[in-house]
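User: Could you check the structure of this?
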Amino acid sequence: MLLVSKTFHFPYVFQLVHVKVGKDPTVEESQNITIAVENALRERFGNQTHVGVHIEPFYKPMG
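Assistant: Sure, the predicted structure tokens are below.
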């Protein structure tokens, strides 16, 4: 799993995260990853943190 993230600080924190996973996780497993990331960010930055999490496929580069 690979996390790519951007944080924006306004009067609140907005965190945009792209989680790259292999092709095997189910929809339910992907949702659990999303919830875990959201909870961890809110724990770190506070409950007023706005979080956007995108699950994306990760492909190994060919060659």
